[in-house]
Structures are given as C-alpha cells and as structure tokens.
Write a structure and sequence with these properties.
The chain is 31% helix and 22% strand. Helix 6 packs across helix 10.
C-alpha cells in the first residue's frame, strides 16, 4: 500500500518507499481540493487522493483508536497488519475473522462502542443546509400527546426481554442472521394486521460485507414521498472475546435490544392511531454495527449514490441504563447536526416530564448516525451517559436484570423518537 503519514506542527514527516502517496494521516484537519476526507475524529483526519476506484482495497481496512495498553496493542498486531499509526489513531488491515476480537479488545481497553470504524473508501460529504423548519410553534399538533399516551412502557419491556433471550445476535453467526429475519416478520405481522397498503418491510442484503441483513420498514409519504425521515437502531450484539475460544454469549439488552424494541413500539403506535405522514418514514434496524457500522454505512452510501432526499436521521442505541439518580437523555454533539440536535432538545424539554436533558461528546465511540452524518445527511444521536455508560455491554451480563436498568428512561427515549417522527414527517 502506498501512503505517507504527516503530523503538522511537530516537524514529523514519514514517507513510504513509493513517491506516489495515496493515503495519509494528518494531525490537523485541513481543507484541500486535492484529497478526499475519509475519516475525521478530533485532531485526526485521513485523506485519499481519489485515484483509485472502489475495489477490494478497502475491504479489510479499519481505523481504530491507539490502544492504551501495550498488551492490547500487541494482540492487535498479531491479528492484523498495522498500515500506519498516529498519536491517537491506528490504520490496520484486519481479516474478517479477527474483527470481533479487535472490537472486544478496544472495549476492554476503555473505548466505547463504534470505536472500530471500517473505511469503505467513501468520502465524507459536507452537511447541506436544512430545508425543514426547526422551530416549535404554539400550534404544534395537539395529537402529539395522544400518540405519547399510546406508547407502552410494558410493550418496550416485553420486547427487550424477548430479544435479549437470544444467546447472541452477532452479525457473522446464523443466530444473528435469523434474528434479522425474525424482526422483519414481526414488523410484517403488524402491517398485515393493520390492513395498510402504503407500508413495505424489506431485508437488505449487504453481500460480502456481512451475512446479517438489515431491516427497513417504509411508510410511504402521502404528499412528498421522495422526502425521507429515518429512525434507526442496530440489531446486532457482540461479546468481548479477548481469546479465540472465550465467551460468545451476548444478550445485548441495553446494546441494543433497547433501541430496537423502542423503534418497534414507535411503529406499533403509529399504526394504532393510523398515522398518515406527509413525508416518507423509514425505520431502520442495522446489521453489523458492532464491527464498524457496516450495515448503516452500506445503506447510507447507496442512498447518497441514488441522491435520496433524507431530511433527518435519529439513532436510538443504548437507552436502558441509568448511571444517575434520575432518568437522563444525553444528546451527543460530535458527528451530529447542530440545528437538528437543538430542535430535538427543545422538543424534549417541551413534551417530556421527569427526565434530565444533558449534552456531551464521544471521543472515539460512535453509532450508526455517524454513517449518515458522513454521507452529508442531518443526524442526531440521543443516548445514555457517554462518560458513564453501562459497564456490562458486550458481556453475558448485559441483561434486563442488571443493576441500573431503568424502564422509565427507555420509555422516555421512545417518546423522544416518536416526537421526532411526528415533528419531521410533516403531519
């Protein structure tokens, strides 16, 4: 691979044997017309000169935070090939077999979910000006409360319990594949019972990226169906596997049966009250989030290629664990759209009772909203405390019996997701 590494302001310049660099790190984010930005986080940016077509070059290329522990870095070097390293990040080629192990090592090293990112070669697209009205007015529909009243905390609880009874939903396993099929059937059952003909349920095949399929539920807009509002979650789970044959059980109650169950209940509520949106609503359940945002990355890339008009995207991921004395919704400020986030904060404060609203950032971790943000679409990510999240995720202890579980908090997140749909789908 041809590359150079550049760290500006520190006098360090590392060049490979080839005089024709294709890919490089830079410590400071810079603006250039000669390179495409593939990845940006904090002070790190990865650029590509764009001379190469999307081939197998990116098939096994990942960026990860630089491990804090020497033993962790040693294990990763044994599993993959380090292409380049930097003060905060490492570029590494990983065989698919070891991706879940590296994800586990990073989590055990103190990095959160989504810190392992698969580079697919797609350039980051700058955010476009929003076309929707973000301000709340005195004439917001009175039906908002009617929908909130219909949303059932018991249904969310029962669905989380049902999902997390599975031993694993790992994307590379038959169990993970079967769960996406089961979830699609459960959505289809609700559609069939409603008698609606404007709703489709699809399983998205990601080819060689993952055997697990994503699920997309589409409610066609009545006036402007080309405009799309997306509500997302990820359907896979993963276990920390620091050794080849270590524990693979991953019930994933908080991460992320909580978000998947909430979105399912939001959909049921919309059908129960025969909601007819002006704009198209899509509820997404993504495959393979835990190993590099692969499912959402593939879908966002296709939407961008097809020039689909996505008005907004909200991701629900980890909503069940409460680290504070009161239910709290944290709005993540990086890899999200400021105007959309501000609007959702205003909406939450106007309609949600008995919940704290706070703001924070994720240094390395992320979720599927980042795939849409990088594709140039407006994205918002409410989640649990980014600095004090559930310590049991990615283990067999991520169950509904874990200390700190709050069903009322999960219900508040579901209410927020429902408000988002009502606000932005143009009722």
């Amino acid at each position: 691979m041809k590359y150079i590494a550049v760290i500006f302001g520190m006098g360090l310049f590392i060049q490979a044997s080839t005089p024709n660099p294709e890919l490089f790190f830079t410590r400071n984010i810079i603006q250039t017309n000669h390179f495409y930005s593939l990845y940006e986080s904090g002070n790190t940016q990865i650029l590509d000169n764009g001379v190469r077509k999307l081939t197998d070059f990116y098939k096994d290329l990942y960026v990860i935070p630089k491990p804090k522990k020497a033993d962790s870095y040693r294990l990763i070097k044994q599993m993959g090939r380090i292409v380049d390293e930097h003060q905060e990040h490492v570029l590494v080629r990983l065989p698919e077999f070891f991706v879940k192990n590296v994800s586990s090592i990073l989590h055990s090293d103190g990095f959160g979910c989504g810190s392992l990112v698969h580079l697919n070669g797609e350039p980051i697209t700058p955010q476009k000006p929003n076309t929707w009205n973000t301000l709340l007015s005195n004439n917001e529909p009175d039906r908002f409360q009617e929908y909130l009243d219909e949303l059932s905390i018991e249904n969310i609880k029962n669905k989380v319990i049902q999902i997390s009874k599975r031993s694993t939903r790992l994307h590379s396993t038959i169990q993970g594949e079967l769960f996406s099929t089961s979830l699609a059937k459960q959505y289809q059952t609700l559609v069939d019972e409603s008698g609606r003909t404007d709703i489709t349920v699809s399983k998205i095949n990601h080819g060689s990226i993952t055997r697990q399929k994503s699920v997309v539920v589409r409610i066609e807009g009545s006036e402007n169906p080309e405009k799309i509002v997306i509500l997302g979650s990820h359907l896979d789970s993963i276990a920390r596997r620091l050794k080849l044959f270590s524990d693979s059980i991953s019930p994933g109650a908080d991460d992320n049966a909580s978000g998947t169950a909430s979105n399912f209940e939001i959909f049921r509520t919309l059908l129960a009250l025969d909601f007819q949106p002006k704009y198209t609503i899509e509820i997404h359940a993504y495959a393979a989030e835990e190993v590099g945002l692969k499912g959402s990355g593939d879908i966002a890339r296709q939407y961008k290629k097809q020039k689909k008009d996505v008005l907004a995207m909200l991701q629900l991921d980890m909503t069940l664990f409460r680290s504070e004395s009161k239910d709290t919704i944290w709005f993540i400020r990086n890899k999200t759209t400021k105007r959309l986030t501000d609007t959702m904060i205003t909406l939450a404060k106007a309609y949600l009772d008995n919940v704290q609203i706070k703001e924070g950032s994720l240094k390395f971790a992320s979720s599927d909203h980042a795939s849409w943000f990088n594709a140039g679409y407006p994205a918002v990510f409410p989640s649990e405390n980014p600095k004090d999240y559930n310590p049991n995720i990615h283990t067999r202890k991520d169950t509904v019996n874990t200390k700190g579980i709050s069903w009322t908090q999960a219900h508040r997140f579901a209410e927020l997701g429902l408000l988002y749909i009502l606000k932005f789908s143009g009722e």
